[in-house]
Amino acid sequence: MNVVEEQKNVGRPRGFEEDRVLDAVMHTFWNQGYEGTSLKDLCTATGLHKGSLYQAFGDKHQLFLKALDYYMDQSFKDVAASAYLHDSPLANLRSLLETITTKCIEGDGCMVVNSLVEMAPHDEEVKQMIDKSYAMKQRFLTDLIDKAQRVGEITIQQEPARLAAVLMVTLAGLAAAVKGFSNTESISHVLDDVLSSWV
Questions:
Q1: How far is CA 76 from the centre of its chain?
Q2: pLDDT bracket for residue 100 (50, 70, 90)
Q3: In whole angstroms, what is the distance from residue 77 CA to residue 164 CA?
Q4: pLDDT in tens, 166-175
Q5: pTM here?
Q6: Angle at 164 between CA 158 and CA 170, to 5 degrees
Q7: What is the C-alpha separation between 27 and 33, in angstroms, rounded?
């Protein structure tokens, strides 16, 4: 089913919802990868013709960049809220990691990790976007870890940024693993085991 209807006159202001189109484009690239996605796939997913897509978003590469940026923004907003549910910094950190893990297992891994493997080695624009996203997420984790250390909930004597880097690498491995392993139950315990070794 198409998520939007094509605007009959491409010369008029856009008559479709940009976020809905980007969401459809995002899921197509996320599920099929950049190389595995054709323009026909994108037109089918969005309900738009080539001219409408190109006029609104640019070529396939620009569409991918905008879809990746949309994914990173939405996914961060979705999980960040879970880090403010408790008075305990450690409980908030656990809640955040549980939310990320659940989304990875129930979804199709992580579009950022997929793009890191497929695109970043030879696409500087994608690499820069991922680097920026990585740095933002690591700062967020660093702040949570620092708060947990200050109140004595995390006792390991390591710099918060270094511990955050451990979590980032573990999360990336988890996101990659869920695409190839059927036993997701064991994967879901990995981050909890990491945190348990810090307290």
A1: 7
A2: confident
A3: 19
A4: 999 988 888 7
A5: 0.79
A6: 115
A7: 10
